[in-house]
FUI1, Cytosine-uracil-thiamine-allantoin permease
Amino acid sequence: MSGINQSIGSFAAGITNGSDFSRYATKRRNYIYGTIASCVITSVLVSLVGLVTAASGQKIYGEVYWNPPDLLMKMMDNGNGSSGSRAGVFFLAAGFGFAAMFENICGNTIAGGIDLAGLFPRYINIRRGAMITFLAAWIVQPWQLINRATTFIQVLSSFSVFLAPIIGIMSCDYYLLRKRKIRLSHLYRTRDSIYYFSHGFNWRAIVAWICGWAPTIGGLVVTVKAELHPSRPLVQLYYMAFLIGFFISATVFYVLNLIFSVPDMDQMDSVDLYGTFTEAEAKRVGVAPLDENIIYGVVSTQTSGDDIAAYRGQEKGA
């Protein structure tokens, strides 16, 4: 279970940030194919190459080098600083550097930029938010998180502790409560939006998130402190952090929404305000396409679907 927890933890951040990129897909299957290619095929190949490289390094140098910089330094020393060893290490290091840069741009800075732009849209756009995230990353000193194998594994496991409850809440909210329906016009409003909740905060989600990580945080603490005789129940719960956090948070969130219900959770606009769907897609989901004269100024795009539907009814009556 520990290995499964660590493996899922490595994907947890990508799962929570998936919507930052899926919204740009023109077709649902495009995002599915891309996810399979990047998360399944590529990850398996990278893990396989890493295992083969570590095993080969042990055979050649008599020691296991799991950290790429350590292996590169060993290659340099073993080559006695020759031009061939320097060239090989240079190109390998460049590959690692570009891979880390691209991964952080896609997985961290863009996601952070979108989040900050959503929180402070008046002052921050996605580009500014990405730059702020990039600068803030240096304060965290992420290189300290991978300086040892045990620390790296603990970091991956901690992702499951805190992100699994978020994934559970998101899944429950979208699939069970909203039934995969989103009212787009209300996403760009404040006080008159069904997504504004209590002064902009959905307290149900906060409570459910805390309930999700509370049972497993103790195991994370004793693991990080490297206690010699940690409590066995805490460690066992920690090894199942993703499953426990996911299902506890999803269940608590669902129950809280049954007791303290939010009105119109499974509603969507009756008119395609933003031209999101093709004519066939709009017909399939039961949304009326918006006329061009309405799109270009007869009725503001900030008007709700119900208001536009009423407007169109008045036009027909006239």
